[in-house]
Design brief:
Elements (H helix, E strand, L loop, with lengths): L1 E8 L2 E8 L3 H8 L7 E4 L3 H13 L6 E4 L2 H9 L15 E4 L8 H9 L8 E6 L4 H9 L4 E4 L4 H18 L20
Parallel strand pairs: 3-4, 3-5, 5-6, 6-7
Antiparallel strand pairs: 1-2
Helix pairs in contact: 2-6, 3-4
Length: 191
């Protein structure tokens, strides 16, 4: 006997019917990408605008947080400086990462992310204009989960974002997010 559940998130409702012992997992998987935070790391303002418009056209209105360079990405992911307020700047579900940026580039951000114990499982999708095979290889060697080349045309970008949403929310299984380590408890004894 299937179990059914209605999940309401903001103004969206998702109805799921599954075997009752799978209901909780299925409801969690029905949550749309629009309810999850995606960190866009992009230095080109024209690309930022194109990607924002493509997300809106694809029906994803609330999911993007934007940083303009690699240093800001590391600060955001670390929760440092202006990004310390996790209510305003929550850890993202996924990072869309440009590679070619001045200063700390996307490769360095990717390497830093994979060397950070609490971010090792964070989904990192490279979204770049580089079609060089050496960049593709290096990104995967550093731990990218996917490598996408930015389309030039707006409609192609919208199509990419729609397919991107379907893959990351409906098809792909994501890992659990590791928990932050607890602070050390130091006991003192008076003798």
């Amino acid at each position: 006997m299937p179990g059914c559940g209605l999940l309401r998130i903001d103004a969206k409702q998702v109805f799921c019917c599954v075997q009752s012992d799978e209901l909780k997992v299925a409801l969690e998987n029905c949550i749309m990408l629009d309810t999850k935070i995606i960190l866009l790391v992009e230095d080109d303002p024209n690309d930022v605008l194109l990607i924002q418009r493509a997300f809106q056209k694809a029906g994803l209105h609330n999911s993007l947080k934007i940083v303009r360079n690699g240093d800001q990405a590391i600060q955001y992911l670390s929760g440092e400086d202006e990004y310390a307020d996790r209510e305003r700047f929550p850890l993202p579900f996924l990072v869309l990462l440009d590679l070619k940026m001045p200063g700390t580039d996307g490769f360095e951000v990717l390497a830093w992310t994979r060397n950070s114990p609490n971010l090792k499982r964070l989904l990192v999708v490279v979204l770049t204009s580089s079609n060089l095979q050496s960049d593709v290889d290096k990104a995967y060697e550093l731990g990218a989960n996917s490598y996408l080349v930015k389309p030039v045309e707006f409609d192609d970008m919208v199509n990419l974002i729609q397919r991107f949403e379907a893959y990351w929310t409906e098809i792909n299984r994501t890992p659990t997010t590791p928990k932050a380590p607890l602070p050390l408890q130091i006991e003192t004894t008076l003798g």
